[in-house]
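Example is below:
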Amino acid sequence: MEKDTSSKETKKSFKERLAHNDLGLRLLVGFILFFCLGLFLHFREVRIEPLELNSIAKRYIVAQVDFEFPDEEATVIMKQESLKGIGSIYQIEEKQLRQTRLEFENFLVRDNSWKESLPDTSIDTMYNIADKFEDMLIASRFSDARTIQKMKTLNLSTEDYFIYTPTKTDIPTYLPQQYWYEIFEDASSKINNKQQLNYVVNFFSEREWSLTEDISSTRKLRKKITDTVPVRYTKIKAGSRIIGQTEKVTPRHLLMMQSMKKALNESRQLWAPLTLLSSFMLSFIFIGLSALYFKHNQPEIIYSLQKLSLMTCIVILTLVFAKVTEYIILKNPSDLIDTRYPLIIPFATMLVCNLLNSRTALFAACFLSIILSVTLAVDHDRFLIINLVTSLTVIITTGSLRKRKEVFGVFAKTYLSAIPVLFVFNFGENSLWNPALASDFLSSFIFMLTSAILVVGLLPILESLFHIMTDMTLMEFMDPNNELLQRLAIEVPGTYQHCLVLGNLAEAAAQAIGANGLFCRVACLYHDIGKLNNPHFFTENQQGGVNIHQLLTPQESAQVIISHVRDGEMLARKYRLPQPFIDIILQHHGTTLVFYFYAKEVELKGGKKEEVDEKLFRYPGPKPHSKESAIIMICDTLEAASRSLEETSEEALTEMVNRLVRERSEDGQFDECNLTFEELGIIKKTLIKTLSVSHHVRVKYPKKA
């Protein structure tokens, strides 16, 4: 009971301290998330029941609001009505006209009787007049009076049009004299030789002519007439039936649904105060419930500006991804891929799982699934189900990724988990296989591939921005070919060996309390890189010979020892090590006392502690700010102390561990990290066990005779 009480008190004090740190910034981050989510909820797309042309409606659909839609069927009927009474347009058969023109030329050549009527006229003059008259006949068009009047109302030219409708187009007939009179009058304005023109007109008027329908002109006229007919809009009242269950979907139904959607958007009144208030109140409820969840279950998220900012960033990225996806789906011009169930949530789940933890990823998956299912223009229930299933698959299969290419493997497994869900949805529609299911398979594959590419691309960026390291990055820093590790192994082999042993201890302790063991192991490799500047001032690198500290005063020796922290920081920045490594370098000694040289200085002062400035013998800090840095501090102290033990029995190791941890705790080194007394107890037990194994007594082999 005492341990549990102490644990709660430690955790409480930790929260109380952090509650005042970065409070303004954390509130700002929370407001940004609240505002972005409010906008996303407010400008959500109106969803209507999706219908496919020529498919069978699954549900009975009624109008949700009053609306009107462009009724193509009614418009077609009106256009047909407008064409009533409009006749065809005819023209003289051009082949016959050319033949008659040839006959006229032959007549002029063979029969000179025309010269008696026109003595002063040359044959060339007659040819020219015939040419012009022929062109006028070719341009002539015939139709009924109503059609020609309609053309006039449309401001179409009727200059070459004459009122006449043939009874039969396949039988040649004489054209009415009125036509010849009118065309003579028209030609007279263009041809000066009236007498010669009259002769030509008489020759052509004495022939029977075949009239053919001018299909091109007739079509153009009809199009002009129908184009003037306005689109007919049909009004639909709210509650009226749009389509019945099992009814075949027609273009008319699709138009009605699109018009209803437009009317719903217009009726929302996006800029009305109450509408805005509704969206942002809903956002506040979501954010408030999330904050309460984290406060009671994962306080490290809301009390850490870094993690809160990262979580906010991932949520906003996912909302943007969702909105872009929705836009592409709705504006898809080709309709080659019908995306019914966009897989968006696995993208966010993968990021949170790698950058934070699987528990937070599960909450993020549920949170985003609910948000997106009620805001996107998708089938809400099925979108929620398939995204939750695939997100859970991501969490289960992610584990501890050590290589970036493994991201693609996780999404491949996630895609496989989506396939049976898609089959279930299809079976629910009483269908074993259809083109829509094939489209679902393809769109799901595209989403998984896109998500994998985005995750691989975003992980390094987010790691750098928020100073968080994934296991993949940590594994890259464990590469023995790393320049710093090679320098440690060659220039300070004693320190390098110390780092390896320390890494094993820290990893075991971290895993025992649920901290990041791999991070502790890798950070230990770099925590003492500052010793590269003065390697021989440290015991583990002194291989016999003179102890250089014998030439220095205790204060000078202490300053050299202390300087390896700042030297390590500068070296880490030179080699561009991540900030979490730099934090470990600065914090792994906290503000502890370099006790050996402090005691030497006190001894030189005759045991008078008041004459010794203790600050000159303390590391500059800061104290550990995380569980991992506190664990590394404890393990660093114990690893060094255990090498000086004369007796390595379990009792001796237990006494040493308890004493050194107690000293660090009493010195206030754990005041700024969220390490509880319960966790300290687990760490001590783990380290005692690990040290006992590494210091076990070996059998002494006899010498060969």
